[in-house]
Amino acid sequence: MIGVRVPATTSNLGAGFDCLGLALDIWLEVRLDEGEGDPEYLGTLEGLSPSEDIILGILKDALPEQRRLRVQSEIPLARGLGSSAAAAVAGYALLQLIQSSMFDRDSVYDSAVTLEGHPDNAGAAVYGGFVLAAPRPARLVFNERLGVAFAVPESPIDTKTARSILPTEFSREATTAQAGRAAALVLGLMNAEGDLIGFGMDDQIAVPHRKQLIVGFDEAVAAGRANGAHGVTISGSGSALLAITPTDQAAAVAEAMAGALTAQGNPAAALTPPVSERGLVTLD
Q1: CA atoms within 13 A on the CB side of 51
Q2: Which one, of 283, 162, 174, 173, lies nearest residue 234 by Cα?
Q3: Residue 248 sits in a domain of what CATH number?
Q4: Taking the model in full, what pTM does it have?
Q5: What is the pLDDT at residue 104?
């Protein structure tokens, strides 16, 4: 049996736009089972058309005869939790396993970034943990006193739509301020310093333009902070909201944010996955 598991990811983390990613204990599992037949899609991918499958698109003619693709995912789709990056990572890892019975982690990362253009998601998905998308992905330390909390709306947001509404140019003042916030965020997440986390998650580049796509955004941010969140932002390109919290307050924050969105007519569910220190792995 040939197969891989890839974690969900949350990216941007506020001012770390396209630079910072975090792996989550929510998984995509892909196997090549013995036998013939159409691909099988389970979990959040149930009903997916093979023509829309990123994994199948990568494998193309490399799919061995007498092997059937089976894909099961727990990752919510189009919510800013790295579902497409996980699929790209899985596809390139499987392609290498088919060709040589092993994969090169760095090569898988490079291929996924080339296809998807999201090094923050791909880095966390491949290497696990807290990752900075530098010229080579760098593993950072996400402080164990911190947890993550999400409010995941029923309504998705298309990543291309979320990208298209961003300006193509920003002022020198905005970019300088963003750099300072990103640096503060890294330090805050490594040392569990709440004031630096709050400052660093207050993105001034993407969130001011994207929050209009999420009904109840301001109310959910206020609810999260009122219940102990250090900072709240959009997870990836949305529609989920991410809060960084003390570990023992994650559940309360997630429920508060989801409740606030729901009260504003945007039904949402609370989610509090652990951070995954493991990235891409093969199935036994």
Answers
A1: 0
A2: 162
A3: 3.30.70.890
A4: 0.94
A5: 95
Q: Pick the closest to residue 243 from 177, 197, 208 (CA basis).
A: 197
Verify that 13 and 128 share a domain, yes or no.
yes
Rounded CA separation 182/199 (Å): 9
Q: How far is CA 265 from CA 56, 102, 154, 252, 259, in A?
A: 37, 48, 11, 20, 10
Q: Same structural domain for residues 153 and 245?
A: yes
- Report how many domains make up the chain: 2
Give the mean model confidence (pLDDT) for residues 17-32: 96
Structural domain harbouring 40: 2-139+275-282
Do residues 21 and 123 make contact, with C-beta atoms less than 8 angstroms apart? yes
Distances (CA, A) of 28 to 40, 70, 188: 13, 11, 30
Query: Per-residue pLDDT tens for 259-276?
Result: 999 999 999 999 999 999
